[in-house]
Amino acid sequence: MERWELIAPCHFGLEAVLKKEILDLGYEISKVEDGKVTFWGDAQAIADANIFLRTTERILLKVGEVKAETFEELFEKTRELPWERYIPKDGKFWVTKANSVKSKLFSPSDIQSIMKKAMVERLKSVYHMDWFPEDGESFPVRVAFMKDVAVIGIDTSGVSLHKRGYRQMTARAPITETLAAALLMLTPWKSDRILVDPFCGSGTFPIEAAMMAANMAPGRNRSFLSENWKHLIPRKCWYNAVEEADDILIRDCRTDIQGYDIDGAVLKAARSNARMAGVEQMIHFQEREIRDLSSSKSYGFLIMNPPYGERLEEKKALPQIYQQIGESFRRLDKWSMYVITSYEHAEREIGRKADKNRKIYNGMLKTYFYQFLGPKPPRRKMTEGER
Ligand SMILES: C[S@@+](CC[C@H](N)C(=O)[O-])C[C@H]1O[C@@H](n2cnc3c(N)ncnc32)[C@H](O)[C@@H]1O
């Protein structure tokens, strides 16, 4: 099978997590840059990456990388790219998204229209056609300029991969599924340890954790744009990936995952989302305020995305909420705590400096992922039978 370069964009700050996921899937990394990981793969890799990766937003098939400081240059270099390798005569093609950082060309609409014209010229000369019906499959192109170099790819995913299909109902300010999965992967949590999200909202952290515990492929229950590109990706590749997803699924996975929230209506949404995801039986949701958080268990994990003051009236309540987070955490025996927030006084109000802290961009919002590490549990002694 032909090998291509594939681009996987991710949240700024989480490239290492995505890189590890791609390596674990068995593919070779070609480049890691801010907000994206590029890797080598064939048609099977496109199906695998879409179905199994938890922390990328989409998978792009890289068409080329060109330096362009003027629109003439952009036109010429886009026309030189081998579009006919990917887009058939009846394909519908357009530049769906253009962004530009530190580059001379920065107007998205101009970049989009110039590139479309150049693609038309290229395909006209190769296919010897004057006009394209564009009534076949879709090939949306994405281009990202950085310091005058444009990386150009065709989107294989369609609807963004954070849309796993389970979150039909959301709370206010939900965290994306891809970000929740990546943050969970940054913790040493394993499915034999208790995990609690005391501000669970629509349930994203508990649901992603349950899916990870059950080895449930995030893309198993949705479709992808490139499933229709039969000239590039044989159906067999999708069947293989789905078959593997079914094989590795742990059907009777036991976990201790809890989601709490002050808002009963939001918990209804969380339960419904968990049901949609097929992990309802693995999570216990309960209406509970942060100040009432307690557990008789030791060595557990708290992971949370507390309110951060999106609305003015909420801002006033923040010191008290974060103080209550600190008090609840101190009551728990040997637990670890992970907090993602953009609230700048989080550590001060929690009353403890984080052991580790990582800057992560949630879209345009700068947030910090504070890690308060508890001790590791003692090694379990082997029983007579295990020796
Ligand atoms: C930023 S949202 C969390 C979103 C969630 N991670 C998701 O993906 O939907 C914060 C949540 O905290 C809840 N909340 C606010 N004050 C609370 C309190 N004192 N105790 C528990 N939950 C609270 C809100 O109802 C809201 O659902």
The computed structural class is alpha/beta
Euclidean distance between termini CA atoms: 47 Å
* Secondary structure tally, helices: 10
Strand order of the largest sheet: 2-3-1-4-7-6-5
Report on this model:
The model has no long low-confidence stretch (mean pLDDT 95). With 387 residues, the protein is an alpha/beta fold. The chain has 2 domains: 4-155, 2-Layer Sandwich (VC0802-like), CATH 3.30.2130.30; 177-216 and 240-372, Rossmann fold. The strands form 2 sheets. The chain has a 7-stranded mixed beta sheet with strand order 2-3-1-4-7-6-5. Strands 10-9-8-11-12-14-13 form a 7-stranded mixed beta sheet, with helices on one face. Helix 2 packs parallel to helix 7 and helix 5 packs across helix 6 (204-213). The protein is built from 10 helices and 14 strands. A hairpin with a 2-residue loop joins strand 6 (138-146) and strand 7. The termini are far apart. S-adenosylmethionine binds at residues 171, 173-175, 198-202, 204-205, 261-263, 266, 289-290, 305-307, 321.
Question: Could you give a short description of this structure?
Answer:
The chain is an alpha/beta fold.
